[in-house]
Amino acid sequence: MSQVAIRVENLGKQFRIGGRVERYQTLRESLVRKLKGLGRRESSENTFWALRGVSFTVDHGDVVGVIGNNGAGKSTLLKVLSQISEPTEGYADVHGRVSSLLEIGSGFHFELSGRENIYLNGAILGMRRAEIDRKFDEIVAFAGVEKFIDTAVKHYSSGMYLRLAFSVAASLEPEILMVDEVLAVGDIAFQNKCLRKMGQVAGEGRTVILVSHNLSAISSLTKRCILLKHGRVHAAGPTSEIVAMYLRDSATEGSAVAGSREIKDDTLGSLLCELDSEGVNPTIPSTQPIKVRFWFTVKQAVTGLRVGFDLTSGAGPHLFRTYYDDLAENPPELQPGAYAAECTIPPNWLNGGDYYITLRASIHGIRHIIVLERALGFQIVNLAGANAQYGVERPGLLNPTLDWKIEPTDPATLPTISTGSDA
Q1: pLDDT at 253
Q2: Which of 117, 123, 202, 203 is deepest in the core (most CB within 10 A)?
């Protein structure tokens, strides 16, 4: 078998914009219309190239990520590779049995039970009944819908529906798997199960094409990446380099500003906070420091004014609270005027995921002046760090690079470990 699993050459896909929906025509009507249209060119104003001049190859066993902004052509590319849509120009050769996780649940029937939909959707996806029988319990357990398996799916929550649909699709065993944004289904726990499933598929030597806006998932699951921009291949190469390029290209001018507020208080006049990560917008590589900056005005002299923030994860847990005067021996005294403060969260410290900053201002031991819940939000993407050499994401919210020391030692100096008494 050839080493190449997918070969794409000068691929292009064109769509008509604002085409009128017409009734079905007879063969005669279609032929007459085609003959009348000979020699005419369709106005370029009525067409749109979703893909143009796309070329790349993927070897068997490769796990390749495809990233880009909305409208870059990512989903269109997967539909062409999956033979759901025909290219307008160029070609795509795919060598091997293909399974596509594109529009999850499109084969489900709302009036049928979860059990019946497993067999229906499995058959649509090309699974034989014996194969579905063998994997049925595994599919149900993965989706976590055991209690409701004989209930019509119209009574399922949207999360239950998507979990079951993903479980059916993910149970296929193709040579080439194409995945489009399905890692965002369900709650946080199920998303982690999806990531582990994709990691398992990748570890079995199957070819995987993964489209996702979850850059942490792209970074942890793939080694090569393709960046699409306006329907063309903007760059391709090692995932860490391509994701970093995407983040640089996506950076907006200035920083993300939030939390600006005029305070109705005798002491604090106004409060402004911004998030800056050396010019990158709120999708921040784990390798960069995160700078949280404050500007505030003081109306009258005050002792013990505290300005700071809480950091929480998107899943809810509270990580820490910090104030600008944490290292001060005594409550600081501030005179009327304007002040600027800055706090730096070190690089390679937070794990991949979503985080929020809640702004706080108070007078020490007396009263709270303001609390702005989740005034700022940002996402950390794991590009490197303490575990970069292993290509897998460690559990937990923190992912610090700590200072370790290892050296040979005399066995005689080892402590004696007591195993306790059997009595």
Answers
A1: 41
A2: 117
**Spatial distance between the Cα atoms of 108 and 114, rounded to a whole number of angstroms:** 9
Strands 176-180 and 207-211: parallel
pLDDT computed for residue 252 by the predictor: 47
Tallying the residues shown for the chain, one arrives at: 423
Residue 259 has pLDDT above 90, yes or no: no
* Judgement on whether residues 224 and 291 belong to the same structural domain of the protein: no
Residue 58 in any domain: the answer is yes
pLDDT of 102 > 80? The answer is: no
Residue 121 has pLDDT above 90, yes or no: no
Distance spanning both ends of the chain, measured CA to CA: 64
* pLDDT above 50: residue 254: no
* For residues 338-358, average pLDDT: 88
Are residues 287 and 174 both part of a single domain? no
Q: Which two tokens stand for residue 176?
A: 């080439």
Domain count, the chain: 2
**The amino acid at 368:** H
Residues 217 and 289 in one domain: no
Q: Which domain holds residue 44?
A: 4-19+27-250
Residues paired with residue 59 on neighbouring β-strands, in sequence order: 4
Classify residue 236 as exposed, middle or buried by CB count within 10 Å of its CB (0-12, 13-18, 19+).
Answer: middle
Residues 234 and 106 in one domain: yes
Neighbours of 313 (CB within 10 A): 18
pLDDT of residue 198: 74
pLDDT digits (tens, 9 = 90+) for 170-211: 787 778 888 887 655 556 667 777 777 777 777 777 888 988
Boundary residue ending a domain (229, 250, 271): 250
Asked, for residue 296, whether it belongs to a domain, the answer is yes
Rounded distance, CA 112 to CA 157, Å? 15
Report, in angstroms and rounded to the nearest whole number, the Rg of the chain calculated over CA atoms.
Answer: 28
- Token digits of residue 95: 């060598």
